[in-house]
Amino acid sequence: MKITQEDINRLKCAKDLLENPGLAAKLTNVIGIPFEKAFDYLPAKWNDTIQTITQKSLQHALDVAVKTIDHNDKKSSSDKLHKLLVVASGGIGGAFGLPALAIELPATTIIMFRSIADIARSEGEDIHMIETKLACLEVFALGGSTEKDNASESGYFAVKALLAKQVSEAAKYIVEKGIVEDGAPVVVRLIATIASRFGATVSQKAAASAIPVIGAVGGALINSIFMDHFQNMARGHFIMRGLERQYGRELVRVKYGYNKKEN
Question: Is residue 36 part of a domain?
Fold first, then answer.
C-alpha cells in the first residue's frame, strides 16, 4: 500500500518529535548555567531516590490516571489544560525545594499520564484497551537514556524493541487477572525498565529544580518544559502507532528511515 503525501508529512512530524527531544538544552536556558553543573546540586546517591520515586509514580499512574478519561468523539486533546495543571504542581514543588519531589512527582506523573492518554485518544486509540494503557506508559521511556545506552540503542524503535516482550507479557497478565496487582512480577519488570529511562529525564528536571535561585516561578517553568517534552513524545508515538495500523510496521519503518541492521 502506498503512503499518501499527507501521511508522509505526519510521519516526518512524528520523527522530528521523537528524535529531537532536546530537554536538557531547553532546561539550560532556564537555569542559566551549563547543565552539567546543575547535577552538582543533587545530593549523593540521589539517583537511587529518583528510581524509587519514579517506579512508585508510574505504578500509581498506570492504575489510576486513565480511569478519569471518557472515550468520546472529541478530536483534539487538552494539552494546554494538562500543562497548566503540571505548571501549578511545579510551582508548589519549586517553592519547597528538592525534598518536595517525592510529593510533587507522583502528582505530576498522573497528570502527564492523563495527558498522554488524551493525546492517544485524539490520535484514534481506544484508551479503554489494556494495550493502549501500556502504550501510554511506554511514552515515559522515550526521550530518556541510561548509562548502558549507545548511539545505536537510543532511537525510538530500539526503545520499542526493548519494551516489546515485557509489554506483551504485562498485557496478557492484566487481561487474565482483570486488575494491576501490586507486586505482579511481569508488571514490576516493565515499570522498572521504563522507570530506569524515565528517571534520566526526572534527574534532569530535579537537577534544574535544585538550583538555589529557581524558586516557585522557575519550578513552574521547568515543569512546563518537562510536560511539553512528554506531550511531544506522546504525539509522535501515537502518530506512529496509527500509521503502523494503517500501512503495516515494515513499510512505516522503511519510510521513517529505520535500518534494522544498524540496531
Answer: no
